[in-house]
Amino acid sequence: MILKLDKQQIRTVLEEAYARCKNDTQGKNADYIPYLAGVPATLFGIAACLPDGELLTVGDTDFAFGIESVSKVPTALLAMSQYGADTILRQIGADATGLPFNSIMAILLENDHPSTPLVNAGAIAACSMIRPTGQSDAKWKAIKEFIETLTGSRIAVIDELYRSESETNFNNRSITWLLRNYGRIYDDPELSLDLYTRQCSLGITARQLAVMAATIASGGVNPVTHLKVFDAALTPKITALMATVGFYEHTGDWLFTTGLPAKSGVGGGILAVVPGVMGLAAFAPPLDEAGNSVKAQKALAHIADRLSLGLFNTTHGIVTETAAVPAEA
Ligand code: DON
To answer: Left (φ > 0), alpha (ψ -120 to 50) or beta: where does 115 sit?
Structure first.
């Protein structure tokens, strides 16, 4: 994709998206995790991180909200870094479920398979795989430090959110033990569930999510710290997973509308990757019925449309009759 954008154009479109969506009152905070119900519903922020590491932001981009399911992205990347993408495909899967994020039926329909690391079942299985297996503290350190390298900044668990999640995660416990029954949990089940719950309880800002998205967009090199975080070959793998299931049963609608691989969380955050171009993030707590932020979706869809960011656009790559064919080495 050949896309020519200048920073002022991106800044203008971000501000436009913010102004258009700011007063939208659709959706409702998640309330099945009590902490999330109490986060101010009017918070709203949008951030873009460019390949040179510059951050363009508008609104509440410094507020630390629950990362929730967006954490499935870094853990899937870490699992793929540790084991290779093929092993993750074999042991977890890469199929869209077309069902809610916490679906037990999806596990049964996929012949006992967790489907993909981007739904709860696959994310818990991914946590179980993270090395060093059997060592809760060391596994947690690996997950947290990997996210910190992706964002280029420190992050911390929101203790009240972690408590709130741990006290109410009965469905996830059922998923964990059902997977254990099928041999799809690769470490102690309760340890794996706790890691998943902890990673969902991390506080993250829209700025940090935008840097994470930009690191993925840049083939694993963090554009702010310039550190190589993961192998470039994993960018097409993680973006393929995001494109197939990032918004659960609404993923097709999202991809049809924007053409962007993205991942949502019930904390209200969305991370979107424009490979080779930029990382985007938006945050607003009220969600639609599938658990995706209403305002963040609308804002990112506006940006994707105005800047023609969709991956399936055909207008950017122009092949002319005179296009030179590179000489063979
Ligand atoms: O497992 C859960 O229910 C939450 N900790 C995370 C769910 C979530 O964010 C779904 N995504 N939109």
So the answer is: left
DSSP state of 280: E
Q: Which of 67, 97, 101 is the pocket-test mutation for ligand 1 (most atoms within 8 Å of CB)?
A: 101
Q: Give me the numbers of helices (H) and strands (E) for the chain, helices first please.
A: 14, 8
Residue 115's identity, in one-letter code, is S
Reduced to 3 DSSP states, what percent helix, strand and coil does the chain have, rounded to the nearest 5?
50, 10, 40
Q: Of ligand 1's atoms, which has the minimum distance to the CA of residue 70?
A: 9
Q: Whose CA is nearest to atom 3 of ligand 1?
A: 102
Q: Please state the pTM of the whole predicted model.
A: 0.95
CB–CB of 118/96 below 8 Å? no
Task: Give yes or no for residue 265 CB within 6 A of ligand 1.
Answer: yes
* Regions of the chain with pLDDT less than 50: 317-320, 323, 329
Would you say the CB of residue 249 lies under 6 angstroms from ligand 1? no
Contacts of 249 (CB under 8 A, 6+ apart): 97, 98, 99, 100, 290
Residue owning tokens 């049964």: 108
**For ligand 1, atom 11, which residue shows the shortest CA distance?**
265
> Does the Cβ of 101 fall within 6 Å of ligand 1?
yes
Cis previous bond, 189, omega within 30: no
List, for residues 157-199, the tens digit of each pLDDT value.
Answer: 999 999 999 999 999 999 999 999 999 999 999 999 999 999 9
Give CA–CA dist 88/84, Å, rounded. Answer: 7
- In single-letter form, the type of residue at position 3 comes to L
Residue to mutate, 250, 266, 297, ligand 1, most ligand atoms under 8 Å from C-beta: 266
